[in-house]
Amino acid sequence: MAFLASLFWDPEDVLVQYRPAAADYINNHPHCLHWWRPTHVSLPQPKSILVGVNSLNVLYLSKVLP
Predict the structure, then answer these.
(1) For the chain, what is the HEC assignment?
(2) C-alpha–C-alpha distance, residues 56 and 61, integer Å
(3) pLDDT tens for each residue of the chain, 66 residues long
(4) Owning domain of residue 28
(5) Cβ-Cβ contacts under 8 Å for 48 (sequence gap 6 or more)
(6) Considering only CA atoms, which of 1, 55, 66 is closest in space to residue 32?
(7) C-alpha radius of gyration, the chain, whole number
(8) Is the CA virtual torsion 7, 4, 34, 27 positive or negative?
(9) Rounded CA gap, 57 and 62, in Å?
(10) How far apart are CA 32 and CA 56, in angstroms?
């Protein structure tokens, strides 16, 4: 996902992924992600601790999880 995002957005761009309501859902491609960012305003962001723990990186998790 990070690679795909890097093709279209700058590393510091904040994006959201939408899951539309069933009544509004359009599926033009089975692997489509609905990423979006406004162009003239900033998106509100949660505190980083609500997204993940910075000290737990992928390498650490791969050693402790089965």
Answers:
(1) CHHHHHHHCCCCCCCEECCCCHHHCCCCCCCCCCEECCCCCCCCCCCHHHCCCCCCCHHHHHHHCC
(2) 7
(3) 788 888 988 988 888 888 889 999 888 888 878 888 888 998 899 988 888 887 776 666 666 666
(4) 2-64
(5) 54
(6) 1
(7) 16
(8) positive
(9) 9
(10) 29
CA distance 7 to 43: 20
State how many domains the chain has. 1
Tell me the sheet residues that pair with 12: none
Which pLDDT tens digit goes with each residue over 20-32?
Answer: 899 998 888 888 7
